[in-house]
Amino acid sequence: MTLPVTNLDPVFRITRTSHVVLTVKDLAASKKFYTQVLGLIVSAEEGDALYLRGVEEACHHSLVLRKGSEPSCVRLGMRMLTDNDLKRGKDWFDAKGCKTAWADVPNQGLTLHVTDPVGTPMEFCATMPVMPRKITAFTEHRGGCALRLDHYQVLTTDVRKACEFYMEAGFHLTEYIAPKGTHDLRGVFLQRKGNPHDIVFFNGTGPRLHHFAFLAAEGQQLLKACDVAGELGYGSKVERGPGRHGPGHAMFVYFRDPDGHRVELFNTHYQTMDIENEPVGWDPTDHTVSFPWGMPARAAWFEEATDFAGASVSEPIVKPTPMTLEKYLSKPSH
Description:
The protein is of the alpha+beta class. The protein is 18% helix and 33% strand. Strands 9, 10, 11, 12, 13, 14, 15, 16, 17 and 18 form a 10-stranded mixed beta sheet that branches. Strands 2-3-4-1-5-8-7-6 form an 8-stranded mixed beta sheet, with helices on one face.
């Protein structure tokens, strides 16, 4: 079994991760968390919806929070370059047997809904209203001062199917997790915008959203976000880190928002846009993949995730057996 190959000439152009749409029980509590801890900017409050963006983002929103009875992820958003790309994309998705529909979405141009082959509800658009960047509005910077939405991680029962589909759509595989000497994919990092990932798929009970991630300019802002979380009573919501990833090498911290949605704040990236950059493989039994220093995450970090609204969840054939904090501390040497 070999690695899938990127389609370097797709008939439509996906450009980047764009926005995530979540349902939350209490908009006021969520607004406080995302504006004060992560430092997101409010673009609009319209009825039962709150639109937020990072401090360097000019497009209207990268996070949409809608009031609902149960927390869920409604859609993961990606940008295409033009409306013509959306139209060509719909034909391509239809030919692949995906469920598609045009949608009328507030504060977005032409929008296409797609359910991918592993059940992930996606939303593609090419335009949004433009808002003032807040990158130099220093008096408005709060908490972690999140710059922009960077990527998603999705749990799925079929990592290879997801990888093949997105690479045929033009995504590049930058890093992958597989047992040593094999291409039995347990995790894949896929990108369109030239850094390590726009969307990540890991083996697990799914489809479910593991987390979405915002970029911070420097490591100190991760600590500032944690300090603010503690002062505001969200100290227990700091789920993992600060620490450093093996794949990607970024410094990170993971939070759970008031509804349990997991959001990552991280810094640093390397460039990986050239076609001669080969994917980097990682062996899951090499625990430096998860924690090159410090201790591993709790079992809940691996097992708990946000349900996609209306999606049917299945168990993977191969159950993940990560090194968890509970296992790590149970060893006599620790």
